Amino acid sequence: MTLVVKISSLKEASDEQLLAQFKQTGDQQFLAELYLRYSQLLYGVCLKYLEDAEEARDAVMNIYQELLVKVPRHEIQNFKSWVYVLTKNHCLMHLRSAKKNITVSLEQHTVQSDDFSHLDSVIEKEEAFKRLEKCIEKLPREQQQSIQLFYYENKCYNEIAETTSMDWNKVRSLIQNGRRNLKICMEKNAAK
Q1: Cα diameter, the chain
Q2: Which residues form the signal peptide (predicted)?
Q3: Which residue from 43, 70, 75 is spatially nearest to 59, judged by alpha carbons?
Q4: Which one, of 62, 10, 56, 55, lies nearest residue 37 by Cα?
Q5: Residue pLDDT, tens place only, 164-188
Q6: Domain limits at 44?
Q7: In the chain, how many H helices and how many E strands?
């Protein structure tokens, strides 16, 4: 029995009529009409399983391509139920393949090249520390002593004044001038 559906009445045609016309003629307008009827259902199913709107839209578009291949090969009694199951299976297959292709984000500290850059920074710090030591040695004796007590032994101005028997203002001046001289020295040696 051949069902002929007029193009102007595609909207009124039943699912069974559209399926039969597509299988008989291969004309995609019949399948497209059927697909559009259930596209919102398909999108909802895809969104439920994939949990991403963009992926769900892509999946719905891919399902149309799948319909072009599978509809002619299957005996479909109830298109709505059949396309629902097809969509669910499509999403599950997508999720399974996504699990096989898991993308792992490697933290910066676990990457081997990061270890080398860490070593580079350690070496740079060591070199800077050596330059600092040489610059401290070049300071006048009182500045050198005040800087060492303040930075290396964590003594406050009062403690340095007591230890060295110097005036508090002199200690403050020695540390400020020592820092300025160290900065100048470090900048000169960094250029080398």
Answers
A1: 117
A2: none
A3: 43
A4: 10
A5: 999 999 999 999 999 999 889 888 8
A6: 7-100
A7: 8, 0
Exposure b/e, 112-124, CB count within 10 A at least 16 = b: eeeeeeeeeeeee
What does pLDDT average to over the chain? 83
For the stretch 65-93, pLDDT in tens is 999 999 999 999 999 999 999 999 999 99
Same structural domain for residues 28 and 71? yes
**Burial annotation 149-171 (CB, 10 A radius, 16+ → b, else e):** bbeeeebebeebbeebebeeeeb
Three-state DSSP class for 147?
Answer: helix
pTM (2 decimals)? 0.49
Query: Any idea what DSSP says for residue 139?
Result: S
Is 44 exposed, middle or buried (CB count within 10 Å of its CB: 0-12, 13-18, 19+)?
A: middle
**CB 64 within 8 Å of CB 35:** yes
| CATH classification of the domain holding 173 | 1.10.10.10
Angle between helices 168-190 and 157-164 (to 10 degrees): 100
